[in-house]
Amino acid sequence: MTENVPPVETVSRRNCPVCHSGAYTSLPAYSKDGWHIVQCLTCKMVYLENPPAQNLLKTDFAWEGRKDEERRRRRAGRSFYYFFSDRLKRLRGMLRRFNKQPKEIRYIVKYSPGRNVLDVGCGDGNIISQLPDTYVTYGIEPSPQMAEVANDTFSRHGGLCIHDVAVGGFAQINKTRFDFILMRSFLEHDSEAMVTLQAAHSVLSEQGGVLIKVPNFACWNALLRKKNWPGMRYPDHVNYFTPSTLKAILSRTGFSRVYMPLSWRLPSSDNLWVVAYR
Ligand SMILES: [Zn+2]
After folding, report:
1. Neighbour tally for 54: CB within 10 Å
2. Bridge partners of residue 116, in order along the sequence
3. What's the CATH number where 263 sits?
4. How many domains does the chain fold into?
5. Residues 242, 217 contacting (CB under 8 angstroms)
6. What separation in Å is there between the alpha carbon of 197 and the centre of ligand 1?
7. With 90 as the cut, is the pLDDT of residue 74 above it?
8. How wide is the angle at C-alpha 264 spanned by C-alphas 57 and 16, nearest 5°?
9. How far apart are CA 66 and CA 122, in angstroms?
10. Could you list the residue range(s) of the whole structural domain that residue 76 is in?
11. Interval between CA 50 and ligand 1 midpoint (Å)
């Protein structure tokens, strides 16, 4: 265990990302390789207490490379599990093709009050570029290669993609007002999640909202598999939201209407969705 303790210069210690309390209880069953998972005693938020310094996310911990590395590592030890998991994915893919559009697109079309849509951590832009051409799409992306690809796509319809981490990106486009901001598999990576949500709130149009998808720490799979749950990623995931802690951080950052129907927070699903309006 001790040989993998993260070097001191790459980590920063932090208080609860939701209520800022420094009082926590350690969760050893969820901690691994020196990465310290804790639960806030005040608001019950679960988080990585010693995350990599945020500026490293743009380079050393850039997600694109680490995702593949993590996938290979995980597959090596669990071929039996992945036999079924791969088939399930293929079935989901078939259903998706039948449904035509990914959930993100259906939810944006249904819940966005307007056509200016921003994707935070947009990758190469492949998700929101599936929106109808009447939408103007924007992105913020820390990987320079992906940001460039996304920018080429988005600029065809008057949008753009900024190469930056979230907060820096919001500062660069704070003159634009967005009707909807997508944070898909993003907020669990962000050790300054509250600052990011406040920045998102400040660039929303009057009726605007955010659509968020994060791993659901309250799901059955997480309870059963603990540190082996695929939602536990060391040190990439620094926030482990449940339906109630996700609602709490949204209301603390000024979102007034939070929409999270039961079908978006089922304990049988590894993921959690929410729409919140300013
Ligand atoms: Zn707290």
Report:
1. 19
2. 136
3. 3.40.50.150
4. 1
5. yes
6. 16
7. no
8. 40
9. 16
10. 5-277
11. 15
Query: What confidence tier does 89 reach under pLDDT thresholds 50, 70, 90?
Result: low
Q: pLDDT, tens digit, for every residue of 147-192? A: 999 999 999 999 999 999 888 899 998 889 999 999 999 999 998 9
pTM beyond 0.90, yes or no: no
Contact call for residues 180 and 208 (beta carbons, < 8 A): yes
Q: How far apart are CA 231 and CA 237, in angstroms?
A: 8
- Residue 212 Cα to ligand 1 midpoint, Å, equals 20
Distance from residue 68's CA to the centre of ligand 1 (Å)? 32
CA gap 6, 33 in Å, rounded? 8
| Ligand 1 mean position, distance from CA 39 (Å) | 8
